[in-house]
Amino acid sequence: MKQYLDVLKNVLENGIKKQDRTGTGTISLFATQARYDLREGFPLVTTKKVFYKGIFHELLWFIAGDTNIKYLVDNKVNIWNEWPYEAFKKSADFNNESLAEFVEKIKTNIDFANKYGNLGPVYGKQWRNFNGVDQLEWIINEIKKNPFSRRLIVSAWNPTEIGQMALPPCHTMFQFYVTENKNGKNILNIQLYQRSADLFLGVPFNIASYALLLFLVAQECDLIAGEFVHTTGDTHIYLNHVEQAKLQLSRTPHKLPKIAVKNFTSIFDVKFEDIEIIDYEFDAPIKGEVAV
């Protein structure tokens, strides 16, 4: 994962200090790009332990078109909890519950979860129902029928619904690109455009998530998973993550793991337990607070 570390180093050395929506402050650099070839291994950051269980559950949640955190909470994935909790704190039902108490209510009270666990029309809604269009199903069918199309695009940025989202999409659109392979199956590649990239905490998740998406779509379309190209707009390190980023840069990357999906029949039927990471070597976790 030298590519990721190169971006991290570039932002630390060449970024500018910039204020942000959360009030935390960032070191920011505009417009970066990194390329990860899945034929060389699965791009899961190795210079700290990454919570890949959360990444995989989140992606399956997107694919299912779900926008309520209950599925994630039930599977002990807490990466989205802060946003609905902040909304709950502004409601008439709020009675000084802590975040942990809020999460427990989501887990144990379905009516409460239905009322306060929804994030609005975020990623899953847009992928599966963008103004009535199931973009994910459409693009898979299009890759199968017309693999060399230049229109293989899915957008999560829906201006008509941005105001209803707990958090507007950071990873805004992705495009597939098929290349011919005279020695066997053709190769499927993907490019993500991410408008806002939390480089220390979020980007390792984003890399692994879209690499897994590429792998699953390639399986669905009987293609080889090739390159994930990650293009980012406002690429930033929060000021309270600077020391953690420096620590990570002091470490030497390990060999990349492999990924496999057991009993694959369809991307829409994959379960978490079907996904296997093989030979993941990593350094100790490095903690950082999420900026909300």
UniProtKB/TrEMBL annotation:
GO molecular function per UniProt: thymidylate synthase activity
Keyword Signal appears in the UniProt entry: no
Domain Thymidylate synthase/dCMP hydroxymethylase: 2-292
EC number: 2.1.1.45
One Gene Ontology term, aspect cellular component: cytosol
Annotated binding of (6R)-5,10-methylene-5,6,7,8-tetrahydrofolate, by residue: 198, 291
InterPro entries: Thymidate_synth/dCMP_Mease (IPR045097), Thymidate_synth/dCMP_Mease_dom (IPR023451), Thymidate_synth/dCMP_Mease_sf (IPR036926), Thymidylate_synthase (IPR000398), Thymidylate_synthase_AS (IPR020940)
Domain of life: Bacteria
SUPFAM superfamilies: Thymidylate synthase/dCMP hydroxymethylase
Record pathway: Pyrimidine metabolism; dTTP biosynthesis
Annotated compartments: Cytoplasm
Any GO BP annotation: dTTP biosynthetic process
Catalytic activity of the protein: dUMP + (6R)-5,10-methylene-5,6,7,8-tetrahydrofolate = 7,8-dihydrofolate + dTMP
Keywords from the named record: Cytoplasm, Methyltransferase, Nucleotide biosynthesis, Transferase
Positions with a binding annotation for dUMP: 21, 150-151, 195-198, 206, 236-238
PANTHER family to which the protein is assigned, alphabetical: THYMIDYLATE SYNTHASE, THYMIDYLATE SYNTHASE 1
HAMAP family the UniProt entry points to: Thymidy_synth_bact (MF_00008)
Protein family per UniProt: Belongs to the thymidylate synthase family. Bacterial-type ThyA subfamily.
Subunit comment: Homodimer.
Summary of the function given for this chain in its UniProt record: Catalyzes the reductive methylation of 2'-deoxyuridine-5'-monophosphate (dUMP) to 2'-deoxythymidine-5'-monophosphate (dTMP) while utilizing 5,10-methylenetetrahydrofolate (mTHF) as the methyl donor and reductant in the reaction, yielding dihydrofolate (DHF) as a by-product. This enzymatic reaction provides an intracellular de novo source of dTMP, an essential precursor for DNA biosynthesis.
Protein name according to UniProt: Thymidylate synthase
Organism from which the protein derives: Williamsoniiplasma somnilux
Name of the gene: thyA
